[in-house]
């Protein structure tokens, strides 16, 4: 698993560096003979779409962070060295309250991406375009 966070000295628009990071992490996974996935995607700088698009280009799965909008501390858990709270894990962070109308996370439309769950063949490319009028998904594979 790899974390993709934007270094503070770089601008948000850095597609080439995103691709380089994916390329290098995939090489490491191949060298170690392991799988690869991306965790804790994109930090606070708003470049999630670039990172998710790069994950599609590299046929890599990813997980986002802080879906839960809750945690509860007690005096004991606040002073504890553990990351666990009485409920949740406040020290590791948590997201915004969910939308009270839709009952979905505030950024659900941003994070929800179509992907191929299983393919009978070898995937060549995959892309989800949430900004198109139809939220288009394309998949190319070889049998």
UniProtKB/TrEMBL annotation:
Source species, domain of life: Eukaryota
Name this protein carries in UniProt: Uncharacterized protein
Species per Swiss-Prot/TrEMBL record: Amorphochlora amoebiformis
